[in-house]
Hints:
alpha/beta, TIM Barrel, five-stranded mixed sheet
Amino acid sequence: MRQIKNALTVDVEDYFQVAALAEAVEVKDWPSMEYRVEANTDKLLELFEARQTKATFFTLGWVAERSPALVRRIQQAGHEIASHGYSHQLVYNQSPEVFREETRKSKQLLEDITGESVNGYRAASYSITAESRWALDILCEEGFTWDSSIFPVHHDRYGMPGTPHQPYLLEAPSGGILKEFPLSTCPVGSYRMPIAGGGYFRLYPYALSRWGLGKINRAGQPFIFYLHPWEVDPGQPRLKVSAFSRFRHYNNLSVCYDRLRRLLGDFEFGSVSDVMDAIEFNASPVKV
Length: 288
């Protein structure tokens, strides 16, 4: 199945920065944690090179500041660099002032390292929700032209149900315009099944992921797929967290890399900007 090009994305963050593990490690402790994001991202870069596949790397400012050479390796391999914010905090737990400061800082860091404009953004844990839609105004004001933060599902940590399921022009609350590539869902009857990757990719049998993503392509639409470098690292340290958080984070880490390799053979991929360049967007922006 190689008719439609889909967006391949990587959220460049380390295992100890994930919201599911926040109960075990505080931000102040991050510098003392075992640092594994460089080796894991390089593992993905090697796979993408072998498959001649380009992707968008949403890079955390905290990681970029510590590993500028990693950002340059991603860029030199021909991939797109986008922003994942600075400190991987949930947007709706931040004030607009803190969000603006961190968003601006991360964008400037990435642009200083790459020498190129950074136009795309993805919020930590997809935390631009109805409660934090004000963040869309700040993205417009800070010079971003596109976003991939909105997950049109119900979830305990994220989600903006009722918003479009395919790429669209978005009107922010104050009137600014962004191109939005929402996280992909697959219709199953009246239910929209989240199918965009990450924990869902590890939880579902591979055949179900392949079917759901293929269904989107068979309807003539591209999907967006995401993964984190720590998801191809079954040897990462095990932190003491609740059973639910443990399941969310550690489930099926040992099979994720092989599944990803299969996925790259089953579908056509490119960066977010590559895919959006081929899309005819709605003429009237959607106000969220």
